[in-house]
């Protein structure tokens, strides 16, 4: 509008990485080859540990081992064995034989693997007030994490989260062991199911190393595997940096964000189909138009968040694993693909709202929500966080239905995790210096 003071044009900070990965070499080719050879030996030792555990009758030990391998980031080496073990656990569940911790762990592992186990398994643990909790901090953490693998209408899991979130918050006011305090803090910020796998692997390697019950073979293999992947990533980033510089985007496309390293971290691809949605957003900006409600906003802005394009690019990269029917299904925008878009779009808007008020910007879901309900920014943010939680339940619901190959469904879930991570505290893609420490731990600093 003519009467409105024109906002300053938006500018972006330069990349914090520059040409760093052109010259950074975590190890020589001969060192990498030697590391891979030693890791192969350790991998076989870990597989033998897993097979011996599978052959035992100790169910709790089996579940703890699977949980450890998944958290420490090496489960993909034993995917077939783990899948078979968890299928056996699912088929043989005796609901009357477990304590709360092991019930929670089993429920979490099975749902995380796509098994639609009923939340009724928690009913027997209700107290006289109808609540489910524990005085043991480790059990409380497992229960809280398990409840977050919920779908719509699971009141018992909703109650577990509401009741035990307060209990976990109260634990933070007490003097806890440093490792336990870190786990409580991490869980309150991001439940385990929603964490980015490689970031969690780096964190958990350090935590596992401090455990008295650690298995040195598993720990050593996890470190080797992490460092091997880091070397591979660095080589990819070197090649991508050369390609990026050849495009001269910094000089020719100054309106873009120089975030090649962050894009590698995000595993994001942008394709031409986003152009129509971006055009609609530009029109909103130029005409100072605010959508009448959040749903109207999301119809456009979810497409411009390129989540569906990222998902389909990932699907195509799997080669023959993905069929034409899979791609056609993805373009129907099912809830498991729509959900990550909502998580990313709204998370981005919440963390960017204050900063974007100082520049010429496209109206956000925050402003649409404020207009729809006549509420403040803070109240709008709370309403939008409810929509994010509902999106997570949509994702898990379709994940458990298993209408497509699990490898495809897992891609969508991983994208939601990455979106959640990138916009947890701030817009880490735009304000990439805040992400620098995490990227350094992933690509630069070995374990």
TrEMBL record:
Matching Pfam families: Terpene_synth, Terpene_synth_C
GO molecular function: metal ion binding
Terpene synthase metal-binding domain span: 273-394
Keywords, sorted A to Z: Metal-binding
Amino-acid biosynthesis among keywords: no
Terpene synthase N-terminal domain mapped to chain residues: 17-187
Record-linked InterPro entries: Isoprenoid_synthase_dom_sf (IPR008949), Terpene_synth_N (IPR001906), Terpene_synth_N_sf (IPR036965), Terpene_synthase-like (IPR050148), Terpene_synthase_metal-bd (IPR005630), Terpenoid_cyclase/PrenylTrfase (IPR008930)
Protein name as catalogued: Uncharacterized protein
Annotated source species: Urochloa decumbens
Upper classification of the organism: Eukaryota, Viridiplantae, Streptophyta, Embryophyta, Tracheophyta
């Amino acid at each position: 509008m003519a009467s409105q003071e024109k906002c300053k044009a938006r500018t972006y900070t330069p990349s914090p990485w520059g040409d760093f990965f052109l010259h950074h070499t975590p190890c020589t080719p001969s060192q990498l080859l030697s590391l891979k050879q030693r890791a192969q030996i350790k991998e076989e030792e870990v597989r033998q540990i897993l097979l011996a555990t599978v052959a035992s009758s100790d169910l709790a030990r089996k579940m703890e081992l699977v949980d450890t391998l998944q958290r420490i980031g090496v489960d993909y080496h034993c995917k077939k064995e783990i899948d078979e073990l968890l299928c056996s656990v699912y088929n043989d569940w005796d609901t009357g034989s477990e304590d709360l911790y092991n019930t929670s762990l089993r429920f979490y592992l099975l749902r995380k693997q796509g098994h639609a186990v009923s939340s009724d398994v928690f009913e027997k643990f209700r107290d006289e007030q109808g609540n489910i909790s524990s005085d043991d901090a480790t059990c409380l953490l497992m229960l809280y994490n398990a409840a977050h693998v919920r779908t719509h209408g699971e009141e018992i899991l909703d109650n577990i989260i509401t009741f035990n979130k307060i209990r976990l918050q109260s634990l933070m006011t007490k003097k806890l062991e440093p490792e336990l305090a870190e786990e409580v803090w991490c869980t309150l910020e991001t439940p385990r199911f929603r964490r980015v796998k490689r970031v969690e692997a780096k964190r958990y390697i350090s935590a596992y190393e401090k455990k008295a019950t650690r298995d040195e073979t598993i720990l050593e293999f996890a470190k080797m595997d992490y460092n091997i992947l880091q070397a591979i990533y660095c080589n990819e980033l070197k090649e991508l940096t050369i390609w990026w510089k050849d495009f001269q985007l910094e000089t020719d496309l100054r309106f873009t964000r120089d975030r090649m390293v962050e894009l590698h971290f995000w595993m994001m691809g942008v394709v031409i189909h986003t152009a129509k949605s971006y055009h609609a957003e530009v029109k909103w900006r130029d005409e100072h138009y605010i959508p009448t409600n959040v749903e109207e906003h999301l119809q456009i802005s979810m497409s411009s968040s390129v989540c569906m394009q990222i998902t389909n690019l990932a699907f195509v990269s799997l080669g023959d694993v993905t069929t034409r029917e899979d791609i056609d299904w993805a373009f129907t925008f099912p809830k498991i693909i729509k959900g990550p878009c909502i998580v990313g779009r709204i998370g981005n808007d919440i963390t960017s709202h204050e900063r974007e008020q100082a520049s010429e910007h496209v109206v956000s879901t925050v402003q649409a929500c404020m207009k729809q309900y006549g509420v403040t920014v803070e109240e709008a943010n709370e309403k939008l966080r409810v929509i994010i939680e509902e999106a997570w339940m949509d994702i898990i619901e379709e994940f458990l239905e298993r209408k497509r190959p699990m490898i495809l469904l897992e891609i969508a879930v991983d994208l939601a995790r990455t979106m959640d991570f990138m916009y947890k505290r701030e817009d880490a893609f735009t304000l990439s210096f805040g992400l620098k420490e995490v990227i350094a731990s992933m690509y630069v600093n070995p374990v």
